[in-house]
TrEMBL record:
Signal peptide start-end: 1-23
Domain Periplasmic binding protein stretches: 26-285
Gene Ontology terms, MF aspect: carbohydrate binding
Any Pfam family the entry gives: Peripla_BP_4
SUPFAM superfamilies for this protein: Periplasmic binding protein-like I (SSF53822)
Cell compartment(s), UniProt: Cell envelope
Gene field: alsB
CDD domains recorded: PBP1_ABC_sugar_binding-like
The name this protein goes by in its record: D-allose-binding periplasmic protein
Cellular component per GO, a single term: cell envelope
Length: 313
């Protein structure tokens, strides 16, 4: 999916959007506002809008990533009030697809960030900005094998089953481990992106599997809960623990040695480049329909380097 937006259907819709909404609101709607990751997306979006005088920006999201109906309602509200464009991080690939189609039919361009929509929905949005989650999962898996070995048990602590980012990130981690080692996978367990749930799940898992050689926490609240459980069990440094995302808690866990590494997405870039993409579309400037926002494996050795500091938050 790396082509310029040249189809007649998309061109017609964008021409309508540009004429109807030469200036107006760009609605940034994320999975939840209660997360440092998504607040860093907000920082990037806010930085972008400072350089775009003809548009304003709003930032919103439900209280929790699992509140999918609330996110659908936020998108519906944005369409109903006639926003110029939408930047959306869909919490559920199936549930958000119909409302994105409705935005398309209303002539409102949409940039999808972080997680994809259901297969067959590509015609209804104009750009997709994301970490290559499969590649990120494979990087974490290779680091796991390199540091934990190729035999034993590795647990996978995931977040919301079926979310686009989870399918790539966790699926490719598990597949890569299976194809390149004799490691036995325990899980995945799903925290619903709740730190306390991940903490309790990891505590129980550690108690039941004292022979674990490694553990992978696949998003911010899950990795924080996982790390705290490891610390409370007195097992920091006794197994290879790899997290995902890069807030202050996870940075502290990398520095303390609780986590060997955390895979950090360009969350700031998702917001910044997402807003810039829809602004370009509204201005009639072609954009590519996939923009890779990247991932950095942050370790104690590189955490203070510019490449890591540019993605941490």
């Amino acid at each position: 999916m790396k082509k310029l937006l040249t189809t007649a259907l998309v061109t017609g819709v964008l021409a309508t959007a540009a004429s109807v909404a030469a200036a107006g609101e760009i609605a940034v709607i994320v999975k939840t506002t209660n997360s440092s990751f998504w607040q860093n997306v907000n920082k990037g979006a806010s930085a972008a809008i400072e350089g775009i005088s003809e548009h304003t920006m709003t930032f919103n999201g439900p209280a929790a990533e699992s509140a999918i109906a609330d996110q659908v309602a936020l998108v519906e509200n944005a369409i109903n009030r006639g926003v110029a464009a939408i930047v959306l991080a869909p919490s559920d690939p199936e549930a958000l697809a119909p409302v994105v189609r409705r935005a398309f039919e209303a002539g409102i361009p949409v940039a999808i960030i972080d997680s994809g929509l259901a297969e067959g929905s590509e015609q209804y949005f104009q750009a997709f900005l994301s970490t290559d989650n499969c590649a990120a999962g494979q990087q974490a898996a290779q680091m796991m094998i390199d540091n934990a070995g190729s035999t034993g048990k590795v647990a996978v602590m995931s977040y919301v089953a079926g979310v686009g980012s989870e399918i790539g990130r966790v699926g490719c981690f598990v597949d890569y481990i299976g194809e390149n080692s004799d490691i036995e996978i325990v899980g995945p367990l799903y925290s619903q992106s709740q730190m306390a749930t991940a903490l309790n799940q990891t505590t129980d898992l550690l108690a039941a599997n004292d022979d674990l050689i490694g553990i992978f926490g696949a998003n911010e609240p899950t990795a924080i809960g996982m790390g705290r459980a490891i610390e409370q069990a007195g097992k920091a440094g006794q197994l290879v623990a790899i997290g995902f995302d890069g807030n202050a808690d996870l940075q502290d866990m990398v520095n303390s040695g609780t986590l060997l590494a955390t895979a950090v997405q360009g969350s700031f870039q998702m917001g910044e480049l997402g807003v810039n993409a829809v602004a370009d579309i509204l201005a009639g400037t072609p954009v590519t329909d996939f923009i890779d926002t990247g991932v950095v494996m942050v370790t104690k050795e590189n955490i203070d380097t510019p490449v890591a500091q540019n993605v941490l938050y």
